[in-house]
Design goal:
Length: 79
């Protein structure tokens, strides 16, 4: 599984990144996690508001922080 956090470095983007690492670890999932900060590349995903979350090439969330349960559900759907 590949998970990408989209964001330019704002506090919400950093919080999402931390939350993703914590959730993946708790779930025991083997995932490659990366962060994209280049605004041009972020816009290629059609994201207008950060933070954004991309799971296996598909935008799963944008413009807000998910709760822990929602993030767990998003990741579980894509296992």
């Amino acid at each position: 599984m590949e998970i990408e956090i989209l964001g330019t470095g704002c506090p919400k983007c950093k919080r999402l990144e931390k939350l993703v690492y914590e959730t993946v670890k708790e779930m025991g999932i083997d995932a490659s996690i990366s962060k994209e900060e280049d605004i041009v590349k972020i816009m290629e995903y059609g994201i207008l508001h950060t933070p954004g979350l991309v799971i296996d090439g598909t935008v799963a969330l944008s413009g807000r922080l998910p709760g822990k349960k929602e993030l767990t559900d998003l990741i579980s759907r894509n296992k």
